[in-house]
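Please review the protein record below. Let me know how this chain folds according to its tokens.
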Amino acid sequence: MPAETLTVKTPWYDHSEGVPVHLTYPDISMVEMVDETAKKHPDVLAYTFYSTKVTYAEFVKQIDLCAKSLCAMGIKPGDKVTICMPNTPQAVIMFYAVNRIGAISNMIHPLSGEEEIAFYLNSSESVIALTLRQFYPKFDAIREKINIKKLIITGIEDALSGPMKLGYSLTQGRKIAKVPADDTLVLGWKEFLKGGGSYTGSYAVPKSGSDTATILYSGGTTGTTKGILLSNLNFNALGLQTAAAGNCLVVGHKMLSIMPIFHGFGLGVCIHTVLIYGGTCILVPQFTVESYAELLKKHKPNYIAGVPTLYEALLRLKQVENLDMSQLEGVFSGGDSLSIELKHKVDAFLKSHGSKEQIREGYGTTECVTASCLTPKDSYKEGSIGIPFPDTYYKIVIPSTHDEVPYGQVGEICISGPTVMQGYNNQPKETAQTLQLHEDGLVWLHTGDLGSMDEEGFIYFKQRLKRMIITSGYNVYPSQVENVIDAHESVLMSTVIGVHDDYKMQRVKAFVVLKPGIEPSKELEDSIREHCKKHIARYAIPKEIEFRDSLPKTLVGKIAYTVLEREEAEKQAKE
């Protein structure tokens, strides 16, 4: 809708600090945006991975070879390809190669449980999948439940060269079990690429911005896992908006890409935004607090983006007295609420280590890829998550209505703009609940989050309407974990809550009632956790399990999980 005909209130326009409120979005695919960057900056590094360094010109060649290899396998436009990988060159190359041939990438967490992986593959109707060798056993365990034609197996060593490749193979690589050579489902990465080397047919399929490009996963408005359909425009708009709102990206400067590629934040901001602007992605496949200091010292990144726990880790680093952070040009937080106290601590840490930057908080949902608003570069309002991105509109409404509340009043956060998803995969009812046409003529994403807007257009996040736990930036839906625990042969019922954690923000705790005649034990606790490992991601497995004879209930007989949350908060307050 033309800007001049909008009836939406946009008070943030007067506080955009020179950031344009409108942008132009090319009607092309994601990979074509990367092509444009490669033409302008062929010799700039697109990514580094340990000792491997690849320029944009080389990167496009890698994408095209992978695209040809997909075509040689018979993958067609519209087919779904699952990428079950950490941040490695193979994952990034495959992501853009799938886009090149007009297929759709299905991005999933490699630490997902076996049953979760089966769900992701089947619900997306994926025809092939890519994963690391160490995750082969999960796919092997569910092969009778899935319909993929081939499982492409790769390893960290496939992206390395020279002494680093040999060193990895002789150390870490030796700890990973070999894949049976006679498994006809499996195709090695090198063998896969050989198919592309001899392929002579056409492979590049021009796509428009409106074409579906990727499926990411979230819990939707009901807390059950949903595949989110995202278009080329969704990602390209996000990249252009983030670069504009960030107001700090420089060609050739480096982003520490720690946030995972299967997460909207990692894929949309730390990879795609960087690659369409001409920056360099420092791909980090596995992050630990111990390795963080070395990454900062070795790579001296210009940009850091991550969840609040990443910055908690920054403050916990030892032997950082001489850590020079003066090269930083942008420090961004998202994926969870950044407390006022943590922001002050991080800002002080940055200043004491030579940086002139403040940590800038953003907000968004996977339903709009990731961020859709950001703290302005040179101003900050305490407790605010910033102002909307260019061409993105926010309104605060009375929950379950289209009626806006006055400035300063709390209501449900709604978002409209070019990054809003196409819908949930095969979930028309949930899509209709989440994407609603308002009387102003715009389609609005009802986020299920509570917040407010002040008279200058700054947004304040309050809490989630959905019952959800966020641990280290990952969404955990209690009902999903409860269903898994309740399926254990010894469990009568359970409820799951998030307990405050200084490092992870929240940790998962389960309260379990056992079937009559079964006594609690450490062995039973371990058995429940082993059961969970097969069905849910590692980060969702309860860190604590407390056995109880009964659980508190509301007047209508529902489990009163808020009572348990209050009990845990009171217990922590006394410690």
Q: What stands out?
A: Residues 56-72 form the longest helix (17 residues). The mean pLDDT is 91. The two ends are 55 Å apart (CA to CA).
